[in-house]
Amino acid sequence: MAVDPRGSDLKRYLQEDPGGPVVMLNLLRFKEGGRKSYAEYGRAIQPFLEKVGGEVVYAGDGSTALVAESGQAWDAVLLVRYPNRAAFSQMVADPGYQAITHLRTDALQEAVLQATTPWPSRQK
Fold first, then answer.
1. Closest C-alpha among 61, 62, 6, 63 to residue 39
2. How far is CA 60 from the centre of its chain?
3. What is the DSSP letter of 47?
4. Is residue 13 assigned to a domain?
5. What is the band of 34 on the pLDDT scale with cuts at 50, 70, 90?
6. What region holds the DUF1330 domain (predicted)?
7. Domain enclosing residue 84, as ranges
8. Is the confidence at residue 124, as pLDDT, over 80?
9. Which residues pair with 61 in a beta bridge?
10. Residues 41, 23: Cα–Cα separation, whole Å
11. Contact (Cβ atoms closer than 8 angstroms) between residue 113 and residue 5
């Protein structure tokens, strides 16, 4: 199962940029013992997030799946906001960040990393 974006994925991600902020949805399934490595990654990524203006807006453990097929439940969910898609791309291209990505890769059995864009707010 894929857990890391490839160069072609990042290229498409930037080509499809609608502009504005992006919130990355992270659905995570850990390998046996992977939570420890992912926690280390979580600490190590903070300076890189701050450098590009990113922030974790939610992080939590998966719980009861109410609507899901067998095997679709996730161990953890994260939402990470970036000011724009270029900021995320800049972060993952940073050599210092690339030196820590093995912590994430080693921790995960399966992952979904999906860009989301906010819906327009309703006028009152």
1. 61
2. 13
3. H
4. no
5. very high
6. 36-110
7. 19-63+75-116
8. no
9. 76
10. 19
11. yes
The pair of structure tokens assigned to 106 is 């080693």
Tokens coding 89 = 């791309």
End-to-end CA distance of the chain: 45
What's the gap between Cα 12 and its chain centre?
A: 16
- Tell me the pLDDT tens digit for each residue of 59-108: 999 998 888 888 888 999 999 999 999 999 999 999 999 999 999 999 99
The structural domain count of the chain equals: 1
Amino acid at 79: L
Picking from 84, 100, 34, 26, the residue whose alpha carbon sits closest to that of residue 56 is 26
Would residue 26 count as lying in a domain? yes
Q: Would you call 27 helix, strand, or coil by DSSP?
A: strand
Residues in the chain, overall count: 124
Question: What is the reported pLDDT for 91?
Answer: 97
Q: Does residue 54 carry a pLDDT above 60?
A: yes
CATH code, domain carrying 38: 3.30.70.100
Mean of the pLDDT values across residues 112-117?
Answer: 95
pTM of the entire predicted model: 0.89
